[in-house]
Amino acid sequence: MELKEQIGEWLKPLLEEMGLFLVDVKTAGKAKVEVFADGDTGITISQCADISRFLEKHLDGSGLVSDHYTLDVSSPGMDNPLKVPRQYTKRIGRILHIIKTDGTEVEAELIAADEEKIKLRELNKPERKKKKGAAVSPSALERAGVRPEFELKYTDIKKAIIQIDWSKIKSKEVDMEDLNEDAETE
């Protein structure tokens, strides 16, 4: 069994007990192991430490890692793409930048998620311009404020990144509650 799969097997009962889920395991040979876990209401530093101690007991002497390996356990963070359906469910209402498997990109609001697909709502589009700078009239749907919705299967998503709402950050004053909300949901 490969190291990543073995770590997943070891962690499954512990994470279920803690109300958490495994997002990803990254390795660099036998010298470095990174474990990313999350929960529906986030993950604490204390929980990361518990997971780390648990894994160390299994990894030490297992032969799966070198004698001087590095183990990092954390939440996925803002710069890591969404990987598992529970991450999407947790982020309903957020704006996602998605690169599809066909290479096209879309930015839309996540409005629903299940085990197979997500549902998105198009963002309000800025006023379109003709070649000579004259504005194009918005469609009847755009005038009515209706934003089309569409679905994407997870198999059609190459990468999905949460977009931070910078409008919540006011000049030099930062509302820490809003900032923490963005950090926790990344």
Structural notes for this entry:
The model has no long low-confidence stretch (mean pLDDT 85). The strands form three sheets. The chain has a five-stranded antiparallel β-sheet. The chain folds into two domains: 3-74, GMP Synthetase, Chain A, domain 3, CATH 3.30.300; 85-184, SH3 type barrels (Roll), CATH 2.30.30. Strand 9 (169-170) and strand 10 form a beta hairpin. The longest helix is centred in the first third of the chain and has 16 residues, at 3-18. It has helices at 3-18, 45-59, 85-90, 140-143, 176-184, and strands spanning 20-28, 32-39, 70-74, 95-100, 105-113, 117-122, 149-153, 157-162, 169-170, 173-174. It is elongated. Helix 1 (3-18) crosses helix 2 (45-59). The protein is α+β, with helices and mostly antiparallel strands and 186 residues long. It is built from five helices and ten strands; from the N terminus they run αββαβαβββαββββα. The two termini are 31 Å apart. The protein is 27% helix and 31% strand.
Structural key phrases:
GMP Synthetase, Chain A, domain 3; SH3 type barrels; 3-stranded mixed sheet; 5-stranded antiparallel sheet; alpha+beta; 5 helices; 186 residues; 2 domains
